[in-house]
Recover the amino acids of this structure.
């Protein structure tokens, strides 16, 4: 018996087993999307101000 051909098929090197749901360049995470950091910083500042008012 030739044991070389038995077993599972070898996967190509450096390829993932599955694709991520939010991979770069997909519809959920397109290339060239900018301004996210500025929006995040504005939200963080607004949240900090809201916490100051409550205390």
């Amino acid at each position: 018996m030739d044991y070389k051909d038995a077993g599972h098929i070898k996967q190509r090197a450096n390829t993932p087993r599955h694709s991520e749901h939010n991979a770069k360049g997909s519809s959920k995470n397109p290339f060239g999307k900018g301004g996210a950091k500025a929006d995040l910083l504005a939200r963080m500042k607004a949240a900090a101000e809201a916490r100051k008012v409550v205390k």
In short: The two ends are 78 Å apart (CA to CA). The longest helix spans residues 36-54. The chain has a mean pLDDT of 80.
